[in-house]
Automatic annotation (TrEMBL):
SUPFAM superfamilies reported for this sequence: Dhaf3308-like (SSF159713)
Pfam families in the record: DUF364, DUF4213
Organism: Azotobacter beijerinckii
Domain Putative heavy-metal chelation: 113-247
InterPro entries: DUF364 (IPR007161), DUF4213 (IPR025251)
Protein name per the record: Heavy-metal chelation
Chain ranges of the DUF4213 domain: 10-87
Origin: domain of life: Bacteria
Length: 252
């Protein structure tokens, strides 16, 4: 599974073609990068130093110099790297063009969970990452939520080693790419149906080689509004117009 990152960076290099990076914004909740007319997102790390040595130097750099930051163990650098990877890959992804929008009355960041809920009765379900409001949406349905910084009802992330192999369905946040936990999470989920999800998702068909069954990421609807939400510290507001969730089954 360590080859996952080499594979992803190869896709990013082919998609970006050494184009320069435009603006980069390291917001409170989301990190956003611009390559050509493409925008890419990554979940921002919870703790970032007050001063970053590279601030003011990223715009204009070749994308192939910043994509490898995804491999960094510095959380801020990894977020920037993932955002640049996504900006290159997702701007012209045929995979994303094929994905179908997820519509509904629930808030946008919960529509993936609402879509799959009818299929989950009697199943052991795991969710990687805490999604605000999910405990209300699935109030009548037992599930495991694994979180690095657990809130009420969550399990610590170390518990995945014991429980994920028992799961029938696993919903994995794509932000696990930046913190380097995704390869192990996919290994532990090898017997489950896996949904890889979130704005941090690179839209590539070949995720199925790593055991992913569904991709659920975002399509930019309003680039200007997305920039503003990220720069002003927005979280779930990103899903209220600037982007829409879309879904693609990889094994259909």
């Amino acid at each position: 599974m360590n080859g996952l990152y080499d594979w992803l960076l190869e896709h990013a290099a082919a998609a970006a073609r050494d184009e320069p990076v435009g603006r980069v914004c390291l917001g409170l909740n989301w990190t956003l990068a611009e390559v050509g007319d493409g925008l890419g997102f990554a979940f921002s790390p919870r703790q970032v130093p007050r001063t970053l040595s590279w601030a003011g130097t990223l715009g204009g750099q070749a994308s192939d110099r910043l994509c490898p930051w995804l491999l960094s163990w510095d959380a801020a650098e990894a977020a920037v790297g993932l955002a640049v990877v996504n900006a290159g890959i997702n701007r012209s992804s045929p995979c994303l063009r094929q994905a179908q929008p997820l519509l509904g009355e629930v808030p946008g960041h919960l529509r993936v969970f609402a879509h799959f809920r009818p299929q989950l009765d009697g199943q052991k379900v795991a969710v990687i990452g805490h999604y605000p409001g999910l405990e209300t949406l699935w109030h009548d349905f037992p599930y495991w939520c694994f979180e690095r910084q657990p809130q009420d009802g969550d399990l610590p992330d170390a518990a995945v080693e014991y429980l994920l192999p028992e799961a029938d369905w696993v919903f994995i946040t794509a932000s696990s790419l930046a913190n380097k936990t995704l390869p192990r999470l996919l290994e532990l989920s090898s017997r489950a149906r896996v949904v890889l999800m979130g704005p941090s998702l690179p839209w590539i068909y070949e995720w199925r080689r790593f055991g992913v069954n569904y991709l659920a990421g975002v399509r930019v609807q309003d680039a200007r509004a997305a920039h503003q939400v990220v720069a002003e510290g927005g979280g779930t507001r990103l899903f209220a117009g600037p982007v829409e969730y879309a879904l693609l089954a990889l094994d259909s």
